[in-house]
Write a structure and sequence with these properties.
There is one protein chain. The chain is mostly helical and 219 residues long. Among the domains are: 97 residues, Serine Threonine Protein Phosphatase 5, Tetratricopeptide repeat (Alpha Horseshoe); 37 residues, no CATH class. The chain is 67% helix and 0% strand.
Length: 219
């Protein structure tokens, strides 16, 4: 044992030994307190129930794409590229069909491109989805074309909604197909004979009058 260790252990007077002992005890107490303070938050964290996973709180890829489409459309709109803005916002509606702002933006863009029917439709859908700022509809520059339409007064009187009894344009009436002569249905061979007559006419071996006369004989 070296001299310093021997003196610290055996030759220090009682006061020095007491001081060293008190210093060591303070060290031990501080160390214990430090450990206790460090361990307490950990125990508290372990004791607390873990929060359940909530996927709705996360940003879904579809929501990210939705915001990107809306913002891209707005950029085109600000650059007066209304048709491209419409294309972006129509894609956004595929992800969120009831999006109030998108319907309103489309109403403005369609009005600016003088497509009144589509502008009316999207403004109706915006109000249906919760749009409430009706005063804005009366002085919004982008809707000026819509306001000069004959149907706008009725649209406004109806709470900026399309009338419930409005129906889509009627489908064109299809022309009924001509039925084949009954003689053809009863005798399929007549069709072949008529076909041969047509070929003879096309080859110039029969005139139109001769073709009609022979056809009349068959029918």
């Amino acid at each position: 044992m070296d001299t310093q260790k021997f003196d610290r252990r055996y030759n220090m007077d009682s006061e020095v030994r007491d001081f060293s002992r008190d210093s060591y005890q303070r060290y031990v107490r501080r160390k214990q307190e430090f450990r206790r303070q460090k361990a307490t938050p950990l125990r508290e964290r372990r004791a607390q129930p873990r929060p359940r996973h909530r996927p709705t709180e996360r940003i879904k890829p579809s929501n990210t794409r939705l915001r990107a489409l809306i913002q891209t459309g707005k950029s085109h709109y600000d650059d007066y590229d209304f048709f491209e803005a419409i294309a972006q916002w129509e894609k956004a509606l595929e992800l969120s069909p009831g999006h109030v702002a998108v319907h309103y933006n489309l109403a403005c863009a369609y009005s600016l491109t003088e497509q009144a029917d589509k502008s009316f439709f999207h403004l109706d859908q915006a109000v249906r989805s919760g749009f409430k700022d009706f005063a804005k509809l009366k002085d919004q520059d982008a809707l000026a074309f819509l306001r000069i339409q004959d149907d706008f007064d009725a649209f406004q009187a109806n709470g900026f909604r399309l009338a419930d009894n409005e129906t889509p344009p009627p489908k064109p009436v299809e022309k009924p197909k001509e039925e084949a002569p009954r003689s053809l249905l009863q005798n399929p061979n007549l069709l072949e004979q008529l076909k041969e007559l047509g070929e003879l006419r096309d080859r110039g071996l029969l005139t139109q009058e001769e073709f009609l006369a022979e056809k009349k004989k068959l029918l």
